[in-house]
Amino acid sequence: MSREEIRASGARAVLVGSCAPGWSAAVFDWSGVELESGSNSGYRPYPACDATYGRGVYAWRLVRYYEDSTLATALANPTRPPANPQALTPPKVPAMTDCGVNLFGFDQLLPEDGRIQASLWSWAPDEPRAGAGACALQGADGRWVAASCGDPHPAACRDAAGRWTVTPAPVVFAGAALACTAIGADFTLPRTGNQNARLHAVAGPAGGAWVHYLLPP
């Protein structure tokens, strides 16, 4: 997509980087908020996650990972093996997303690149489906699907300490908020891949759970 096509569509592109810190005076500075590029060669699926940053970092910081496979990088490190263990691969990206990586810098990105699909954590492929229902359900696999609001399912609840749980009994969507209040929590929805993974850890065994999202009419 060209810059002209981006402008014509009304979309916005955000440029991030650490190579021009002086620009922060003209735009914004996230020093102290953002971390980038720890080691990802040993990344493991949630909840084992990362050997570089602990859970506290992911809870309070923006974590960015990027890769560089340009000629300049090869010249700087000519002994790097062809199969770079630091590469952001499609199998590795879902684990990083579930663990709390907020922003990826994929190098040499191509149309239909598997890394893009691997970074998606909310709606399942081809969802929400027309006619399936107006309410959002986190399915047993952790991805969201459209469902009939009158179907009974556990509801996704989050307490003041940030802990996720589900209601002990299935409820229709309209009863989800009250059911969460009854166990001292709020009916809500995940807003990050890590929150979605935390909910899935408790909702998956129950077959899924309502999340607090209504599809627009």
UniProtKB/TrEMBL annotation:
Q: Which residues form a coiled coil?
A: none
One annotated Gene Ontology cellular component of this protein: membrane
* Listed name of the protein: Conserved exported or envelope protein of uncharacterized function
Organism (species): Mycobacterium tuberculosis
PANTHER family from the entry?
A: MAINTENANCE OF TELOMERE CAPPING PROTEIN 6, MAINTENANCE OF TELOMOERE CAPPING
Q: Does the keyword Glycoprotein apply?
A: no
Compartmental location: Membrane
Please verify whether the record's keywords include DNA repair: no
Keywords annotated in UniProt: Membrane, Transmembrane, Transmembrane helix, Viral envelope protein, Virion
